[in-house]
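Thread title: Can someone regenerate the structure for this chain?

I was given the following input by a collaborator and told the matching structure tokens would be attached. They weren't. Posting the sequence so someone can regenerate them.
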Amino acid sequence: MRARIAVLSHDSLRGRDTPSAGLESAAAYIARELAAMGWEPAGDSGTFLQRYPMPGSARGGARPPNVVAVLRGSDPALRETYVVLSAHMDHVGAGQPDAAGDSIYNGADDDASGTAAILEVAQAFAIMRPRPARSLLFLAVSGEEKGLLGSRHFTEHPPVPMPSMIANLNVDMIGRNAPDSIVVVGQEYSSLGATLREVGARHGELRLTVASDLWPGERFFFRSDQLNFARKEVPAVFFFAGTHHDYHLPSDEVELIDADKASRVARLIFFTAAAVAASIDRPTWDPDRLAEVRRLAR
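Best answer:
Regenerated them for you:
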């Protein structure tokens, strides 16, 4: 886990701004890893990359990438439905130097940690036998820091029909703060919350308390990439350990990551995704929460 975060937050990627050469390097790394694991490309023209136009770009029509891949399920009928694992691979680039002269905003926690987690989950599913009944869809988006651009494009131009996506597990900033707990935002919005709590109770070896939203006034459910899935009425939850004093600063470095915590959170994500992908029943919305999402989407 630490090694993946170190790759994604290395100074050579210069903060993975959208668009940038560093972001392209991150996308290429993720695509290589997925190919080596045996996942199938689900991007443009048989590749792992899905590109989208950058709004207001001054770079001559820049087209930043998402990375998209599929792992087919084992059930002949249910394999046409998908559990989506998502995280944003971009950060905010380089900017004003801090007191130490560091101008690269590495984004080790935000969100190299989440991207590394879904790569670890992808590897676990690739070697799992037998595979779950339903298929898995891997999505590393860019443009999150610019207004959820990559996930918006993905949900407007999906590689598979949106109604076939039964759940979205989104992961953003899981490598810091309390080592024995993880907040999962949006548990009350759908039956995914009950599934998550059941999984957490079965896996005490993870030494993780699964907490509900500690910051309801911040409305975090509507501030990361799961929002674009919720807009399409795909039940979603958001794994999030909270912000910290290094948030959006050059000091968000890999040396400060709690890799043991991040790896345990990745296991929780894997067990949760596996439970959803193995179930005959699709996750269902709480009607009142779905009505709230519909109002905000309008």
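Residues 108-127 form the longest helix (20 residues).
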